[in-house]
What does this fold into?
Amino acid sequence: MKDSMNLIIFRYFAYTWAIVFFLLYLSYLTHQLATDYPLLNVKYNFLDVMQVPNMKICSYGHFDILASDCKLNNNSAIPECLRYVSDITYNADERRYCRTFNSDLKYVHGKPDGLNKLKFYFKINTTEAEAGTLGVAMITLDLIPPNFNPLLKMDKAVELRLQLQGNFVPAIVDRVALVKFKTKIYNSIPPWNFASIFGLPPTYHSTPSIECSVNYFPFNQNPFNMPIGTNSYFSISPGDFIVEETSEKRTTTILSIFGSAGGAFGIVMSTLAFLFGSPRLDPWGFVRRISIDIWYPIRTFISQDDDVNLPYYEIDFKKYLAIHKNLSKL
It folds into this structure.
């Protein structure tokens, strides 16, 4: 029974629209891949040990760090903590005096011999410091993660976020500054990272950062065991032992495109099969056809005897394939 001309035209029209729809959807998925903006996945890591951050201590006036106390959880002290503070240097461009604090000390949670708090007593030339930009006698503390690499090529958005964040904490004369810090890690996907584009776990650029909160209290001029000449002091301690880790995650990958395109193709073919029926199944697969196409030219050079008594690998499958196709048309 042959199909009518109207049915044939309608079927061709439906197949054409199905192909156009599928190609448009595939173009949409490709555009999504090219313009994909990663989502942010946040998780919290609970630590027992946290390394003391490095510090850059600066002021517009000359200052001295008179003493440094390293207190443990059992209230005992680590001797000679002042050795971690560098000599003072003067930056002529910024017109500031600076010192650095670098150590291998670690805060330990829940252990008596673990570090609990750092305290620094300082003396500043108030007249020189008040001549600075803000007109206030103070020093600024810039807390830097120990594993921060300033030479690492960061993502532009991450670099801008760090610049706007502002980790500078002021320690003001006649005020006690109690500084609490939290550590954060931002994992950014490098541009043109093939693993992330394909759908595999990417190789991240990890950028650590520190957020600080500070509380100020009136300075007691005569505290117990304070160095003579102290203007004020500040202490550094962790706000908690939780590290917030933010990771970028692509929403569209090549594998997800294959999945979406395969689903759309299945819907289209199922709809066409429901409307017009399924085509005849072909039992001859791609591998069998290739093997026959390769084997047949060799077979033509062999004498064409009766195939009944020939071994399996010498049977003329090309001839039987043609017979099968003719029978399937009946």
Observations:
- The first helix runs from residue 5 to 34.
- The radius of gyration is 37 Å.
- The helical segments are 5-34, 126-129, 156-165, 194-198, 254-276, 286-300, 317-328.
- Residues 41-249 form a domain with the Acid-sensing ion channels like fold fold (CATH 2.60.470.10).
